[in-house]
Amino acid sequence: MADGIPSFWGPVTSTKECCEQNYVYSSYVAEFFNTVSNIPCIVLALIGLINALRQRFEKRFSVLHISNMVLAMGSMLYHATLQRVQQQSDETPMVWEILLYMYILHSPDWHYRSTMPTFLFLYGAVFAIVHSFFNFGIGFKIHYVALCLLVCGLCDRFFCKQISSWPINPQGHALWHVFMGFNSYYANTFLMFCRAQQRDWSPKVVYFMGILPYVKIEKPKVQ
């Protein structure tokens, strides 16, 4: 949504905007709430990454947590600037992350094989190149249509005029960011638990500060 103070980044060039008034709090941040709502995603992914490294989980889980952080930072860039180039930094990592989840979930017997990671890597690289040159709106939506069914996102998009007339904007897209941050963290934790069970690492779910679950393992000692 247009309005607010003058923009540091110039006119909006992105192909979509969310239901939030632009440049209300700073000339450097277009959509304030949609930008800062990515911070929990980064923090949760960082916690997951530290746990994966500390307990020496397989590298794929470290990459998975890093990809969550990259996605959140790309989303911050996009919502802060509303520029077409920065929009790529939000959308392309979404597809990369889906490919990474596909690899982790469907890799035969969870072992590293050359065929699947090679195919997924090439697919992600080709998508990034094509998406950077063309307005790949329909293709991107096909990749992410399932996630677009989330209620708060749909309400924010299709009922923006009505929502904007309310005394307080519930910031549906910002809530989407927060929910997806927790969703990614819990999904990663679940996958780590399943993998630890498969490897007989005696996984247990413990809680950070009594609230946030993470997986603790005990690897058998090498004879």
Structure in words:
There is one protein chain. With 223 residues, the protein is mostly helical. The protein has helices at 32-36, 39-54, 59-81, 84-106, 115-133, 137-143, 151-158, 160-164, 172-198, and strands at residues 204-208, 212-216. Strands 1-2 form a two-stranded antiparallel ribbon. Strand 1 (204-208) and strand 2 form a beta hairpin. Helix 2 (39-54) packs antiparallel against helix 3 and helix 3 (59-81) runs antiparallel to helix 4. The longest helix has 27 residues, at 172-198. It is globular. The N and C termini lie far apart (64 Å). The model is unreliable at 146-151 (pLDDT under 50).
Compact description:
By secondary structure, this protein is mainly alpha-helical. It contains nine helices and two strands.
Number of helices: 9
Q: Overall 3D geometry?
A: globular
Estimate the mean pLDDT confidence.
79
The secondary-structure element order is HHHHHHHHHEE
Biggest beta sheet attributes: 2 strands, antiparallel
Q: Which band does the percent of strand residues land in?
A: under 5%
What tags apply to this protein structure?
single chain, 223 residues, mainly alpha, two-stranded antiparallel sheet, 2 strands, 60% helix
Write the layout of secondary structure elements.
Layout: H1 32-36, H2 39-54, H3 59-81, H4 84-106, H5 115-133, H6 137-143, H7 151-158, H8 160-164, H9 172-198, E1 204-208, E2 212-216
Antiparallel strand pairs: 1-2
Helix pairs in contact: 2-3, 2-9, 3-4, 3-9, 4-5, 7-9
